[in-house]
Amino acid sequence: MSGPRLRAALEGLADAVPDTPGRPRVGLDLVHIPRVRRLAEQHGPRWLADHFTTRERAELAVVRGGGYATMAGRLAAKEAFIKLLAPSGPLVLTGDVEVLRGPGGAPLVRPRGSALRQLRSSGVESWSVSITHEGEWAAAIAVGCGSLPDPASTSASADTPACPTPDRPSTPLEQP
């Protein structure tokens, strides 16, 4: 199945599986590190400024070995976070998803601008991101949850998985 029939089938599936409050949402992305290196070298500071905040660029500047794997990992984390939000309206810019080094080295996502607006409308209240690198590839996964359903509610079901309790506090929403 391809083309319009596949699209119709996928849209039907999306309608059949509603975005249930409390059900985890997931975003995943894979980035080719040599491609990031090529883009960074070809387009220089302008490309970096389009995709990374001032704080991100400061962190990347001190990474040993040029930081291309770290850069690719952070781009993957940004894209995974955007996919988690499942934007259906205006474009969410990668520059509006700030990925910083958190306590202990874990990635910390701080949404701003278009990402913050989409986050507020998506119902996602807590999230976590993980990044990995292997060979020429960097990958990231973002998991987020909204409000848990009221257990007394008739719409809550035993089949609806609750969001896991985060190991660490979620990133607080900042004001734009």
From TrEMBL:
GO MF term (any one): holo-[acyl-carrier-protein] synthase activity
Biased composition range(s): Pro residues: 163-176
Region of interest: Disordered: 149-176
Keyword Ligase attached: no
Biased composition annotated in UniProt, kind: Low complexity: 149-162
Top EC group: transferase
Listed InterPro entries: 4-PPantetheinyl_Trfase_dom (IPR008278), 4-PPantetheinyl_Trfase_dom_sf (IPR037143), Ppantetheine-prot_Trfase_dom (IPR004568)
UniProt name for this protein: Holo-ACP synthase
The species this protein was found in: Streptacidiphilus cavernicola
